[in-house]
């Protein structure tokens, strides 16, 4: 493995009772890149993400992080190495304040997440860092707001802040703009760009306009396999990509959803 790759998969395969969901996938994620994993519905993107974060075990193949084979490691072990995933569905505590959510994440990073019986005063030393993280995602003024009261876009920003509290070296983002209006999407694009400074980011994202603005490199999956890879211009000019996004791929399988087709056209 070249030292420029922070994450690599070799011939990664995942089968479910004979169905091949991920088929011989080879990824090479370069240090410092924002790398997108895209493809039409059912392409295998989420399955690959679940393999990388050890929520699923590969049927065959290897996963390497900084040259180390991490295929057999558990999800907690890879998190300790600096691989942290932000989930598609907002993973914050709804009845805690924004600041309290960040503080829990900081406690987890320090290994003291079960020390809830301690006096609140003993946790105040974490508050300065909490406020720095909230400010970095534009939520400083909402520090004492209960999370359930935050607008959807702000909840996603809070989720990103809790993820950053874990000090990730490799940040995995699962549909960071899912379900957002255009104003929130633009805000999250800027947040991801800011969060990527000094880090490597791998993201699954349906919104191809977001991908075109953010990503250094893109891997396109189709039917569980890598279709093509390159920068946005290279990928968007590939007729095979248009084929899988704009309709039938010739095998009788349905292509991309209408929103995905519109995203591809809009991002051209």
TrEMBL record:
Q: Which UniProt keywords apply?
A: ATP-binding, Nucleotide-binding, Transport
The source's superkingdom equals Bacteria
Pfam families annotated for this entry? ABC_tran, BCA_ABC_TP_C
Residues covered by region (Disordered) = 243-268
MF term (GO), any:
ATP binding
Q: Which GO terms describe its cellular component?
A: plasma membrane
Q: Where's the ABC transporter domain? A: 7-248
UniProt name for this protein: ABC transporter ATP-binding protein
Organism, by scientific name, is Marinobacter fuscus
